[in-house]
């Protein structure tokens, strides 16, 4: 339950601390006094989005803090899983700085907003006039029926299977789209792959081809060089070899008396042998080297193709072309395997779909049976609220496909008067009827949800007199199992409360602030009398107020 709510620098509130108690509490006050402001502040610590406009003083920080008694709620695992200190009381705090930065804390540990929302839903359920409009929403009606059942296990079983079904279906949709696109791209990919496969691609071979091409392109110069070398080495006159031979003879003539001549002759003989060998190789290459224009053309054509592919694919080497070819090959293989993947995934989905249908049928059967019980229970409460001729039916229709909540569309058909066929709530119920219908539903659902705190924001809209007193009795009964806080403008409801708080505006130093006080018994009499009176509080109004409090 909510023990304490502290509000600092929020709208008309400068600093406010409210201690709430168990049982049934009401909050009253004149229109514009700030009742909705307090509810808005509370909504912040339950996860509502923050707005800089709520800052009373634009230069100071806004702080909203709620202290909750954990009661019988099992939250220890939640706190452990999120590395938050656990205690019997939970402190939720929101801070909004003038810069617009919003921070959230649970037991002084910074947390994200999702954790605040999760925890807030465990502690408090707020019903406002706006929510009454949701009665016409079929999704809301389905949630209400499931809440009445108590979130049945078949729903969880169904949702677990549905998550698999949805995931697999999304995978199939992605693969199918991928396959459609792949088939469109297939011709292009095949062309690129075949083009890259049409020639031998090898970085070493490219180097050899480039060397061979340079050789053939310079064949004439090479031929001239070889001929000149052959002439220098071995021409009939003044050849290099004959000159070396003559030099050897010169030293042979003086070998006997020239110191070191023997070593010189050894070196000259080595040179002579090496030159003879070089001359032989030059002669062979010169005689065998025949220029082949066809071979040069063939090599250049291949080099042209390779260079063209490098430029076309915007790469810098043959190795990159090889990687690209492998990539195209993998894409082609993937296209071939897509059909198999799609077939396999389709089979998996059919199996899951069969299980899903079985669970959906179980869920439908449970909802169908619960619908009659729900309608009867709501009617019992509506009769206590003065709607003795009301009729409500729960109608289930099949959806065209599975949804996260099942395959059921729930419709609440309602009428409040004899002789009128039940119809859709939005078309047949008045504002007061909607309020009583929502109260009846809330009282049923909250009994099963067992939330610690239920807050009603003007649930009495559209009702008055005797009916208002019956509304108060229903809320009073609810307070036997929950902490109930009701913002009301009706004295019939306020008189049923265990605790009464009044919100009022207070002007100080030309500044208007909102304050709230818990009323004493005498103050409650004055407040109720004021609510009963149109202008001036009369003695009869005071006496009526006393009678109302005496019950």
Provide the fold topology:
Layout: E1 2-10, E2 13-19, E3 24-28, H1 35-44, E4 62-69, H2 76-81, E5 89-96, E6 102-106, E7 109-111, H3 113-123, E8 124-127, H4 129-132, H5 138-149, H6 153-197, H7 203-217, H8 219-234, H9 240-253, H10 261-288, H11 293-312, H12 318-384, E9 391-403, E10 406-415, E11 423-424, H13 425-428, H14 431-449, E12 453-457, H15 465-478, E13 483-487, H16 491-494, E14 499-508, E15 511-518, H17 521-532, H18 539-550
Parallel strand pairs: 3-13, 3-14, 8-12, 12-13
Antiparallel strand pairs: 1-2, 1-4, 4-5, 5-6, 6-7, 9-10, 10-11, 14-15
Describe this protein's structure.
It is built from 18 helices and 15 strands. Helices cover 57% and strands 19% of the residues. α5 packs across α12, α6 packs antiparallel against α12 (318-384) and α8 runs antiparallel to α10 (261-288). It is of the alpha/beta class and 551 residues long. Among the domains are: 1-128 and 458-519, P-loop containing nucleotide triphosphate hydrolases (Rossmann fold); 187-332, no CATH class; 521-551, no CATH class. Strands 2-1-4-5-6-7 form a six-stranded antiparallel β-sheet, with helices on one face. A six-stranded mixed β-sheet has the order 8-12-13-3-14-15. Strands 9-10-11 form a three-stranded antiparallel β-sheet.
């Amino acid at each position: 339950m909510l023990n304490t709510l502290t509000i600092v620098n929020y709208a008309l509130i400068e600093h406010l601390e409210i201690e709430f108690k168990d049982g049934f509490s009401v909050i009253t006050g004149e229109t514009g006094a700030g009742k909705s402001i307090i509810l808005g502040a509370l909504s912040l610590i339950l996860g509502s989005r923050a707005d800089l406009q709520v800052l009373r003083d634009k230069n100071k920080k806004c702080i909203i803090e709620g202290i909750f008694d954990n009661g019988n709620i099992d939250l220890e695992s939640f706190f452990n899983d999120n590395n938050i200190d656990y205690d019997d009381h939970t402190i939720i705090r929101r801070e909004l700085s003038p810069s617009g930065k919003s921070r959230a804390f649970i037991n002084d540990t910074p947390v994200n907003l999702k954790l605040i929302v999760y925890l807030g839903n465990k502690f408090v359920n707020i019903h406002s006039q706006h929510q009454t409009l949701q009665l016409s929403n079929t999704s809301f009606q389905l949630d209400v029926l499931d809440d009445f059942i108590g979130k049945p296990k078949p729903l969880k079983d169904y949702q677990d299977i549905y998550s698999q079904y949805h995931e697999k279906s999304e995978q199939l949709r992605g693969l199918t789209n991928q396959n459609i696109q792949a088939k469109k791209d297939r011709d292009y990919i095949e062309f690129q792959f075949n083009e890259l496969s049409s020639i031998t691609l090898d970085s070493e071979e490219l180097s050899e081809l480039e060397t061979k091409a340079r050789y053939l392109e310079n064949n004439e110069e090479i031929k001239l060089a070889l001929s000149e070398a052959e002439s220098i080495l071995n021409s009939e006159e003044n050849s290099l070899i004959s000159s070396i031979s003559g030099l050897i003879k010169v030293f042979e003539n003086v070998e006997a008396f020239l110191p070191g001549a023997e070593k010189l002759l050894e070196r000259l003989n080595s040179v002579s042998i090496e030159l003879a060998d070089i001359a032989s190789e030059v002669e062979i290459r010169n005689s065998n080297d025949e220029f082949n224009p066809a071979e040069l053309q063939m090599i250049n054509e291949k080099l042209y193709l390779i260079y063209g592919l490098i430029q076309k694919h915007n790469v810098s080497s043959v190795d990159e072309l090889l990687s690209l070819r492998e990539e195209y090959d993998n894409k082609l293989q993937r296209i071939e395997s897509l059909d198999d993947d799609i077939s396999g995934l389709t089979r998996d989905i059919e199996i899951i779909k069969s299980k899903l249908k079985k669970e959906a049928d179980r869920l439908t059967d449970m909802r169908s049976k619960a619908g009659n019980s729900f309608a009867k229970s709501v009617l019992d409460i509506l009769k206590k609220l003065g709607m003795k001729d009301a009729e409500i039916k729960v109608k289930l229709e099949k959806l065209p496909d599975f949804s996260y909540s099942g395959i059921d569309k729930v419709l609440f058909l309602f009428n409040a008067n004899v002789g009128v066929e039940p119809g859709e709530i939005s078309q047949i119920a008045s504002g007061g009827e909607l309020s009583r219908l929502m109260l009846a539903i809330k009282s049923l659902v909250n009994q099963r949800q067992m939330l610690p705190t239920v807050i009603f924001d003007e649930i009495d809209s559209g009702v008055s007199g005797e009916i208002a007193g019956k509304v108060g009795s229903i809320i009073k009964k609810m307070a036997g199992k929950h902490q109930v806080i009701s913002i009301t403008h009706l004295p019939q409801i306020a008189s049923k409360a265990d605790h009464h708080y009044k919100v009022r505006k207070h002007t100080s130093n030309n500044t208007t602030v909102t304050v709230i006080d818990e009323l004493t018994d005498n103050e409650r009499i004055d407040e109720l009398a004021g609510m009963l009176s149109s202008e001036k509080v009369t003695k009869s109004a005071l006496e009526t107020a006393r009678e109302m409090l005496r019950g």
